[in-house]
Q: What sequence folds into this?
């Protein structure tokens, strides 16, 4: 059993999917079903490296923020009536938090390079969160975006020599897939709110930036991840079944996800040659 649980496919895919499926099935008619995303990710971390916050390295800061994001989303959803200003404020906070995560890495850079990379981290994280939170009222599109972003970030991280962020990205994709499966069966997608969209936005932004700062993912592959939440806005027939809408939206998301994956792959080939 231990050997099975140590397999990367189980840690990053099977176990997060099963845990997320259970959470989504139990909470499927409430907005708290979106806790399946963080439950799947936490399962992956527990199986691969264990959950720990000391010493507070960049990787552990990522874990901390990913676990805090859904709590912040729940709180803001409950307390703030004007969703749009709150959403954009959270995007700015997420950008600043991303700079904090990689502060120790940035401090090793010199002069303009440090400031340029720092501003890039802030801008990307803020843009990713902002693009996700605009999907907060459409659970199906937000879930498909989580699927596409998780796959794109995970596979691009693998190509960029980061197994850790591969597992993290795949856990988000697997968890989003579990949510989508529950909704296809029930035919009743649940709006993501800030709970779901903030969680996905923060997770994917930090995983991609981690692969950029701690591995070899090129900056333009990171930026191209923003195509996925744009792609799921493409039109589908709203009178179609949940399955058909999820299918077409998934095609859009996976097509967009292939772009940053291809960019990372070509960059890795150029490095090797």
A:
């Amino acid at each position: 059993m231990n050997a099975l649980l140590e397999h990367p496919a189980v840690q990053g895919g099977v176990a997060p999917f099963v845990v997320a499926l259970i959470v989504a099935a139990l909470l499927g008619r409430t907005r708290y079903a979106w806790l399946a995303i963080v439950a799947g990710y936490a399962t992956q971390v527990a199986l691969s490296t264990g959950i720990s916050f000391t010493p507070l390295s960049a990787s552990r800061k990522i874990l901390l923020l990913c676990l805090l994001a859904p709590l912040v989303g729940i709180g803001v959803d409950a307390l703030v009536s004007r969703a749009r200003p709150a959403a954009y404020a959270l995007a700015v906070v997420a950008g600043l938090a991303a700079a904090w995560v990689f502060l120790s890495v940035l401090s090793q850079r010199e002069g303009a390079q440090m400031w340029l990379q720092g501003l890039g981290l802030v801008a990307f994280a803020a843009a990713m969160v902002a693009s996700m939170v605009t999907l907060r009222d459409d659970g199906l599109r937000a879930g498909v975006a989580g699927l596409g972003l998780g796959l794109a970030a995970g596979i691009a991280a693998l190509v960029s020599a980061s197994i850790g962020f591969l597992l993290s990205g795949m856990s988000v994709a697997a968890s989003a897939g579990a949510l989508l499966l529950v909704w296809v069966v029930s035919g009743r997608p649940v709006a993501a709110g800030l709970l779901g969209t903030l969680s996905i936005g923060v997770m994917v932004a930090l995983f991609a930036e981690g692969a950029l700062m701690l591995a070899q993912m090129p900056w333009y592959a990171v930026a191209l991840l923003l195509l996925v939440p744009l792609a799921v806005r493409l039109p589908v027939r709203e009178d179609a079944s949940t399955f058909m809408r999820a299918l077409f939206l998934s095609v859009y998301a996976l097509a967009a996800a292939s772009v940053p994956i291809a960019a990372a792959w070509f960059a890795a080939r150029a490095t090797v040659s």
In short: The two ends are 41 Å apart (CA to CA). The chain has one domain: 2-272. Residues 2-272 form one domain. The mean pLDDT is 92.
